[in-house]
Amino acid sequence: MSESTNAEQPALIRQATADDLDDIMRIYDAGRKAMRASGNTAQWINGYPSRALVEDDIRQGTSFVMEGADGKPHGVFMFALCDDPTYQVIEDGAWLNDEPYGVIHRISSDGQLHGVMASAAEFGKARATNLRIDTHADNAPMQHVLEKAGFTRCGTIYCQDGSPRVAFQLSQA
Question: Average per-residue pLDDT in the chain?
Answer without folding.
Answer: 93
